[in-house]
Predict the structure.
Amino acid sequence: MKLGGLKPIDDRKIVERVLKGDTEAFNLLVRQWEKPIYNFIYRLINDREEAMDLCQDSFLKAYRELATLKDRDRFSAWLYRIAHNTCYSRLRKDIGKTFVEFDPNTSSGRSNVVNHLAIEKALQFLPEEQRETVVLKVFHELKFEEIAVIQGSPVSTVKSRLYMGFEKLRSILE
Amino acid sequence: MTHLGERITDFFFGELSAAEMDEARRHLADCAECRKEVQQFEHTHAMLKSSSDAEPPRHIVFETEKRSFGWRWLAPIGMAAALVLAVWIAAPMQIQWNASQLVINFGKVSTPVPAQATVLPAPAPQPVVQAVVQPIDYDRIIKAVQAQIAVDLKNRDLQQVKMNQRTQDYLDYLRSLQETAEIQTFKNTDTIQMIALKTGSQD
C-alpha cells in the first residue's frame, strides 16, 4: 500500500539509514511528514498547541519503535496509525467534554476566512471516527483501504462513516 | 441499477472498478435524484477542501545526545592530581641537594648527622639517592583521594545546577515569547474575522 503518491521509496531509504545507526536521518522523515501529521491531529482535536504536542509524541513513538516496522515501504501508513492511537488516547481522556461551541451564523460564511473557521468548527461536530475518516479522505487523500488499516475497521464501515460524515457536514455548512 | 446510496463515496473518489464506474455513470444519466446527490457531495467536498492546511507552530528536531567533552578528560587528570596530593600529605617528602648529592627523604625528615671531623678522601661526584623506607599510610591516602573526589563531584554538581538554571531561564523566556505571540495571533484573528465580516456584510 502506498499513500497518496508521496515518496515511499525515499521513506524506505531513510528508514534504513536510521536503522543502521544514522539517527539524525530521522529528521528527514520528520521534515517530510510533520505538516501532514500535525494537520491530521489538529483537525481531530482542534487545539493547535495540543496538536503540536501529540504530533511530537507520535514522532517520538515512531522513532523508538522504528525497528518494529515490518514493511518499510509503509512508513507513512504506520506513522498515521501511531498518530491515530496517540490522538485516541488523548480523546478518551476527554469523553463527555464539549470541544467547541458552534455558531450557526458563521456557517453561511461569506469569505474564505469565515469559511475556514466554519469548516474547522463543523468538523468538530462529527463523532470522532467520522471526523477522522473525512479528514483522512478529503485532506490526506488516502484510499478507503488505507483508512481502514489506520482505524482498524472494515472498509465498509469506513465508507459508511464518510457517507454519514458528509451528510452531517452538508446539513451544518449549507 | 438501484440508486447509488453509500456507493456515491466510491464513485466520487473513483474507487469503483472500471465496469462499476461505467454502470454508475449510466445510472446517473437517467437518475436526477442521484445526480443531485452527487452534486451536493461535490459541493460539500469543495467547501472542505477550501480549508487550507495550517503550519505547525514549531518544528520538531531530533538531536543525538552530545557527550560532555570536558569532564571526560578532566576527571582522570583530577584523580591523578588528587593521588599526588594524597601521597604528599601521607608521606612527607624532602628533597635536598647537598654537596653534589641529591637527597630525597620520604616520611619523617631525618635529623642531619653532624659532620665528622675526620677528613676522608672526596668520592667521585655522583648523585646519590637516599630513601628512608617507612610504611605508607594507605588509610590516609584513601581518605585524601575520597575528599578530593568529593570536592570534584561537588564542583561538578554546582556547575550542573547552574547549567540547569540557565536552561530553565531560557525556557521561561521562550515561553513568554510564545505567549506573547499567541496573544498577538489571537488578536489578529479577531481583527481579521471582524474585517471579513464587515467586508461580507458590505457585499
User: Anything to note?
Assistant: Residues 97-110 of chain A have pLDDT under 50 and may be disordered.
